[in-house]
Amino acid sequence: MNVQQYVRNSVERLNSRVSLRSIPLPYVLAGVFLAALAVPSAATSYFMLNTAIYAFLFIGVGQSWNIIGGYAGQISLGHAAMFAIGGYTTVILFTSYGVTPYVGLFAGGAIATVAGLALGALTFRLRYHYFSIATLAAALGTYMIFLRWDFVGGAVGLEYPISRVGTAFSLMFENREVYFYVMWAFALLTTLLVYRIHTSKLGLYLKAIDLDQELAENAGLRAFWYKMYAMGLSSFIAGVGGGLFAQYLLYIDPQVMVDLVRNVEFVLIAVIGGLGTVVGPIVGGLIYIPTREYTRTLLAGSHTGLDWVIFGSVLVFLSMYKPNGLLPRRPVIQDDGGDTQSPDQGGDLSDE
Questions:
Q1: What is the spatial distance between Cα 308 and Cα 239, in angstroms, rounded to a whole number?
Q2: d(C-alpha 347, C-alpha 41), whole Å
Q3: What is the DSSP letter of 331?
Q4: In the beta sheet, which residues pair with residue 348?
Q5: How far out from the chain centre does Cα 317 lie?
Q6: What gap in Å lies between CA 9 and CA 15, rounded to an integer?
Q7: Phi, psi for residue 220 in degrees, rounded to 5
Q8: Where are the beta strands (DSSP E) in the chain?
Q9: Conformational region of residue 74, where left means phi above 0, alpha means psi within -120 to 50, and beta covers everything else
Q10: Would you tell me how many other CB atoms lie within 10 Å of the CB of residue 159?
Q11: Is the alpha carbon torsion for 45, 48, 52, 58 positive or negative?
């Protein structure tokens, strides 16, 4: 054996021993979120901190879509409707009725849950692309309603009173670093919820429904009600995320909250990272949001729109070579050795 072959074999053995897949998933999540706490002090500009805030906000919203789209296999293109409902509810309760956003966020999540369950009840009888088209139509309908509804500001939108910024009651902060920690906590809590689903019987049932709904129903699973449960959880998180988004921007309108691009973004974050995985939306959010922000900034002015051409090209190549995302999930029942794994056992990254 020559030296070159010896080095190659040694590197391969080392990689197999320290492979990321061998690290338990809880350790991976803890490492990512603990490392992220250093972002505010490491950020050298407002742009970097703003990008990090958006990234963790959309990680949380991406996790919400991952529940219904990644685990249950229902490719919803209407999640921006629940996102917008949560945002508008939070703003209206505060600006019109004096209800603190600490309550408004949960109220927005609750109303978004009702809307999501209503949408699910009407569309879960549809399959495949028919379901996606129906949810997209619902989102576009929501956009048109908000655009013409004077109570929610119509096309002009709603604005927070700037005079309330900095008060504890308003959940509006002068220091942007505080917003980062709020979004970090939102991403952490939603990720922990998805991890709990991933390692529970519910996650196993949702994945079974995704793989073959008829077979799952023949095995005794009530697919419709499990999908409704997933839709309720997903819609609540999306509604809370919409409220946090409004708290950060201090202004919302239909174009910002529920336009077509917003619907697609939630899907992209989960798809890029890997559908039906816990880490997938984290990877997707940390790739998509910085890429979107930097390309949009660098290609502004006369090159406006070119950022979407570049990003669309990247997505085409990703769909060709990594159709299941960067972290494709493994089989639901069996691990690499062919042994059956209990759904209640803690998963490591190989579950991804």
A1: 26
A2: 32
A3: P
A4: 24
A5: 22
A6: 10
A7: 110, 0
A8: 158-159, 251-252
A9: beta
A10: 14
A11: positive
Of 280, 322, 61, the closest CA to residue 190 belongs to: 61
End-to-end CA distance of the chain: 37
Is residue 173 pLDDT above 70, yes or no?
A: yes
The pLDDT, as a whole number, for residue 143 is 93
Q: Which of 55, 333, 281 is nearest to 183 (CA)?
A: 55
CA distance 290 to 262: 16
Higher pLDDT: 120 or 321? It is 120
Q: Is the dihedral of CA 243, 133, 147, 294 positive or negative?
A: positive
- For residue range 56-112, list pLDDT tens digits in order: 999 999 999 999 999 998 989 989 999 999 999 999 999 999 899 999 999 999 999
Q: What are the tokens at 38?
A: 């250093």
Q: The tokens of 97 are what?
A: 């009725």
* Phi, psi dihedrals of residue 78, rounded to the nearest 5°: -125, 20
Kindly indicate the confidence band of residue 22, based on its pLDDT and cuts at 50, 70 and 90.
low
**What gap in Å lies between CA 220 and CA 141, rounded to an integer?**
36
Distances (CA, A) of 139 to 91, 105, 108, 133: 20, 21, 17, 10
Closest CA to 84 of 25, 16, 158: 158
C-beta of residue 327 within 8 angstroms of C-beta of residue 274: yes
> How do residues 286-318 score in pLDDT, each as one tens digit?
998 998 888 887 776 555 667 677 767 777 777
Query: Is residue 200 within a helix (H) or strand (E), and if so which, with residue range?
Result: none
Is the separation of the CB atoms in 155 and 259 below 8 Å? no
The answer to whether the beta carbons of residues 93 and 103 sit under 8 Å apart is yes
Residue reference for tokens 């729109």: 305
- What is the maximum alpha-carbon separation in the chain? 78
Whose tokens are 């409704």? That residue is 228
Distances in Å between the alpha carbon of 17 and those of 10, 14, 22, 91, 326? 11, 5, 8, 51, 21
Q: What is the pLDDT of residue 230?
A: 95
Coil/strand/helix, residue 280:
helix
